[in-house]
């Protein structure tokens, strides 16, 4: 019976290779430099890995003269051929990122884009070969890898942002599907990859005008590929908007802005203020709000430095100097106002921890002394701000109302400070001082409420009313506690006198918990005192230890030992030694 060889070849199933592309890429990147963003080291690793693959496969390119050998579908008889194409793409990508992080001029940018194109070329070939020679998962991962490389190229070219966003979305969709299956490690890798791609999608959407993210959120989520480009785009946008900004408005006064840098810095601070006070401000975490405040302070400080430089170069031009001085005063006042808002945010965070008890995570609670310190800062900030605004000669109505408003806020801050100072004395067991401070805080609160009767600030009035109630309840508690402690003093005194004796008094003041396990006596001390707990004495006291017995050897001197001279070796003497000894 004859067998058709072509039919036998058709019946033999084709070999399908399997590569976990994402795991292979992440393992190579994290172990060889990209954990520290060292793209040069990773590029050198890719080159060394390619040399080893070429040598192991005997897929060399001639001796002496380079002879190019292409990898096609018929060439791929081993999974290592797919590794060669993958590491070629990785080497080109890491070279492009190395040029990008080094800072690019026009010539270097052309070279960087060429490296990205080469990475796209090898990634596309890798996807094509995996679709034929790999299994379905390998083919899908290779397609996602190629889409990411294409998106990175279009992103850097800054021409086809829509195409870049489509490629990034394709990458995200693939890894979202792959992340639903497989091991936990594979799901975590897919989640990390999605988190890397999402900021790029958001930035592309932001540039196309359809993003819901704010500018500071985009900058916070940017990675190495995004940060430099996002900073450039945002600064360019601010420069375009600053061109139409000619004056700064503050409390009914207008100050002209002639310096372009000053406009950019003020505009940056105003945009951050909009992000901070926008409709989505409740969803922003407190840590992020503090970070936005830091950026606002940095922008206003930069604006002030530009104004001071303009003042130094203004010469004797009185009109210009007056405008610059007014602008400097206005920017300083806004900076002081934002400082007060930031400190109020810190107070709200501290108050939320002040009422908490220690939970399973052993979270640190706020002490009343910390709130006293924060209110000291707020009082100083309000005094500085009102002094700055009232320093002008001709004040308008808005400035007067502003000064009056913050004087009342300063009074409210003093009442809050007095309340937490009383809390501090109460925790130390000083009842009389705490009672007096609670009464004084209530007096300050009542005074502030009388002056704020017609104020539109309903939130401040409500806070002061709750503070007044707290002052009244805490003063009553301190009064009652003080009376109870006063009544218990004679009882303690009589008990102490009854235990006195004229003999050797080995009092229990040196007794520790380990010495009185049979009795129910406290070794911790009073709750309001700061004495140490008496658990065990450390270092332990010295104890008498019996010495080793002294043994005197009395028989040694009475022993007569035998003579050993007959066993000793005798020296031989010559003839001359007999005469001269």
Automatic annotation (TrEMBL):
GO CC, sorted alphabetically, is: cytosol; endoplasmic reticulum; nucleolus; signal recognition particle, endoplasmic reticulum targeting
* InterPro entries in alphabetical order: SRP68, SRP68-RBD, SRP68_N_sf
Give the UniProt subcellular location, in the record's own words. Answer: Cytoplasm; Endoplasmic reticulum; Nucleus, Nucleolus
The record's keywords, sorted A to Z, are: Cytoplasm, Endoplasmic reticulum, Nucleus, Ribonucleoprotein, RNA-binding, Signal recognition particle
| Major place of residence | cytoplasm
Q: Which CDD domains did the record assign?
A: SRP68-RBD
Function text = Component of the signal recognition particle (SRP) complex, a ribonucleoprotein complex that mediates the cotranslational targeting of secretory and membrane proteins to the endoplasmic reticulum (ER). The SRP complex interacts with the signal sequence in nascent secretory and membrane proteins and directs them to the membrane of the ER.
What is the similarity comment for this entry? Belongs to the SRP68 family.
Q: Which PANTHER family match?
A: SIGNAL RECOGNITION PARTICLE 68 KDA PROTEIN (PTHR12860), SIGNAL RECOGNITION PARTICLE SUBUNIT SRP68 (PTHR12860:SF0)
Protein name according to UniProt: Signal recognition particle subunit SRP68
């Amino acid at each position: 019976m004859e067998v058709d060889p072509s039919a036998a070849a058709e019946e033999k199933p084709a070999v399908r290779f399997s590569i976990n592309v994402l795991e292979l890429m992440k393992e190579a990147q994290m172990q060889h430099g990209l954990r520290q963003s060292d793209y040069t080291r990773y590029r050198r690793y890719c080159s060394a890995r390619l040399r080893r693959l070429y040598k192991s496969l005997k897929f060399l390119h001639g001796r002496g003269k380079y002879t190019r050998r292409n990898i096609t579908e018929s060439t791929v008889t081993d999974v290592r051929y797919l590794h060669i194409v993958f590491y070629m793409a990785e080497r080109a990508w890491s070279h492009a990122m190395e040029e990008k992080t080094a800072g690019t001029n026009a010539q270097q940018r052309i070279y960087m884009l060429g490296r990205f194109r080469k990475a796209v070329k090898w990634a596309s070939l890798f996807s094509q070969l995996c679709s034929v020679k790999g299994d379905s998962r390998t083919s899908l991962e290779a397609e996602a890898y190629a889409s990411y490389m294409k998106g990175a190229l279009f992103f850097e070219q800054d021409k086809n942002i829509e195409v870049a966003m489509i490629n990034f979305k394709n990458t995200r969709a693939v890894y979202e599907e792959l992340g639903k299956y497989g091991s936990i490690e594979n799901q975590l890798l897919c989640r990390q990859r999605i988190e890397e791609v999402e900021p790029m999608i958001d930035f592309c959407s932001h540039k196309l005008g359809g993003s819901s993210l704010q500018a500071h959120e985009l900058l916070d989520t940017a990675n190495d590929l995004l940060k430099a480009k996002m900073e450039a785009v945002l600064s360019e946008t601010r420069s375009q908007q600053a061109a139409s900004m000619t004056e700064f408005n503050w409390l009914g006064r207008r100050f002209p802005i002639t310096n372009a840098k000053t406009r950019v810095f003020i505009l940056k601070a105003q945009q951050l203020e909009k992000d901070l006070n926008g409709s989505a401000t409740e969803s922003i975490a407190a840590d992020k709000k503090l970070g936005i405040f830091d950026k606002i302070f940095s922008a206003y400080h930069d604006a002030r430095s530009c104004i001071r430089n303009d003042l130094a170069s203004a010469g004797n031009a009185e009109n210009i100097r007056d405008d610059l001085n007014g602008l400097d005063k206005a920017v300083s006042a806004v900076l002081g106002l934002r400082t007060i808002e930031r400190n109020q945010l810190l107070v709200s965070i501290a108050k939320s921890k002040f009422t908490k008890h220690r939970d399973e995570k052993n979270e640190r609670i706020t002490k009343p002394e910390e709130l006293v310190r924060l209110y000291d800062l707020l009082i100083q900030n309000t005094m500085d701000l009102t002094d700055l605004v009232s320093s002008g000669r001709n004040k308008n109505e808005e400035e007067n109302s502003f000064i009056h408003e913050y004087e009342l806020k300063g009074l409210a801050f003093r009442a809050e400070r007095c309340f937490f100072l009383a809390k501090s004395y109460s925790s130390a067991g000083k009842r009389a001082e705490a009672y007096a401070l609670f009464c004084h805080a209530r007096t300050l609160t009542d005074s502030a409420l009388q002056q704020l009767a017609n104020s539109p600030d309903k939130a401040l009035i409500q806070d002061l009313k709750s503070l007044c109630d707290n002052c009244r309840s805490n003063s009553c508690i301190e009064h009652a506690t003080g009376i109870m402690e006063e009544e218990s003093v004679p009882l303690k005194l009589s008990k102490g006198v009854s235990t006195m004796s004229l003999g050797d008094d080995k009092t229990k003041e040196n007794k520790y918990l380990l010495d009185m396990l049979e009795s129910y006596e406290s070794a911790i001390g009073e709750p309001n005192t700061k004495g140490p707990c008496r658990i065990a004495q450390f270092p332990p006291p010295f104890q008498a230890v019996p010495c080793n017995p002294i043994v005197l050897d009395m028989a040694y001197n009475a022993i007569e030992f035998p003579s050993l001279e007959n066993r000793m070796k005798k020296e031989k003497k010559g003839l001359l030694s007999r005469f001269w000894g």
